[in-house]
Amino acid sequence: ESPIEVTEGVDGWNTIIFLYNSALKEVGTKLEILNDEFQHVHQYNPIEYIKRRIKTPESIVKKLKRYGYESTIDNMVNYVNDIAGIRIVCSFTSDIYRMAEMIGKQNDLTVVSVKDYIKHPKESGYKSYHMLVTVPIFLSDRVVDTKVEIQIRTIAMDFWASLEHKIYYKFEGNAPEYISKDLRECAEIVSMLDAKMLSLNEAILEAKAAQEAELLREEKD
Ligand code: 0O2
């Protein structure tokens, strides 16, 4: 398996977009299968929904500029890790780690790096679990390892991140301190909500199991 090798120019650009789109398809299908299997075995699916996207050329160029690199195809492939991005939105925080473990065990995926912004939230209050993986893309004459950034978060974390992203962009990164502070407070509320929903779900599962055990006992007597 080889890393992506492309020429500069429109041809090179079209080749990388084709590869990243293929990688999104491969990883997307894998995730759907894992979710279906989980539903089949445990009668429960950890994924609420999945979003995929290819980073826009403007956003790629902006990121390279921020890193201090020229906008060449080579630099895009080497330094922008999230050209292909998949976001898995889960019901509960426990599902995030369950998903991450299942992804890590897939033999044909290579986990390059992990950033746990749930255990270590960003300064902004941002919470999410990031995995950078590579997936082999089987072409007619070669196999190309292609990077995909997987972001895993709960619905509540996704709600916060989507709105914060909009607000942040309005201020182009220079939001007044009182707004950043309010956003951090909102992130706290989101974490409390996630914790409450998780314990509520655990309580419901326990109550249901107790009820079923009681019914069984009654049937025996
Ligand atoms: P966009 O518009 O979402 O594509 P970096 O830290 O960005 O220099 P890297 O390795 O990509 O380098 O970082 P990371 O932290 O693994 O992933 C960055 C992505 O996470 C961002 O992509 C966002 O999607 C998301 N993210 C990180 N921090 C925040 C945050 O404070 N708020 C929100 N809403 N999202 C965040 P891009 O390319 O920055 O932006």
Automatic annotation (TrEMBL):
Pfam families, sorted: RelA_SpoT
Domain of life (superkingdom): Bacteria
Recorded metabolic or biological pathway in which this protein acts: Purine metabolism; ppGpp biosynthesis; ppGpp from GTP: step 1/2
Boundaries of every RelA/SpoT domain copy: 52-175
InterPro entries on file: GTP_Pyrophosphokinase, NT_sf, RelA_SpoT
Name of the molecule in the record: GTP pyrophosphokinase family protein
UniProt source species: Roseburia amylophila
